[in-house]
Amino acid sequence: MTTTAPRRGTLPPGAGFTAPFVRKAERAPAGPGAYVLVVVLRRRLTLTIPGHEGVVLPAGRYLYCGSAYGAGGLRARLGRHMRHGKSVRWHIDHLTEAGRVTGAWVLPGGNECALVAALSHLPVPLPGFGSSDCAICRSHLLHWPARAR
Predict the structure, then answer these.
(1) Cα dihedral sign for 108, 113, 119, 124?
(2) Is 109 left (phi over 0), alpha (psi -120 to 50) or beta?
(3) 87-129 tens-digit pLDDT
(4) How many Å apart are CA 124 and CA 19, to the nearest integer?
């Protein structure tokens, strides 16, 4: 399993577009937009999320597509995702607390569902994860296999 961060400006193969990659939240724009978060799990994670209790996510790289249209925009949302010790509020918090966020691609003004669609060639490890309020996407969490550089 590779744990290196992606090269600047590249998205996983087949995404069809590029975007800036930030390793620190302070480097993200403060305005609204969407993002693709890279989370590395060094060991498997057994979820305790209602409706997904006991589901095991294997060690590996995961991509989470989200949006930040509230106060503080992308910078504040990524800062929360990258911080450990936060209260677990969203599905993705379970992964970010158990794993390591290596960075995120940021798309000012972007749409999380468009990002999921652009990355739809990647496997969905858990239907409904992070998309319980979304009628379009099967999941906002994708598995980024080591062979997909």
Answers:
(1) positive
(2) left
(3) 999 999 999 999 999 999 999 999 999 999 999 999 999 988 8
(4) 22
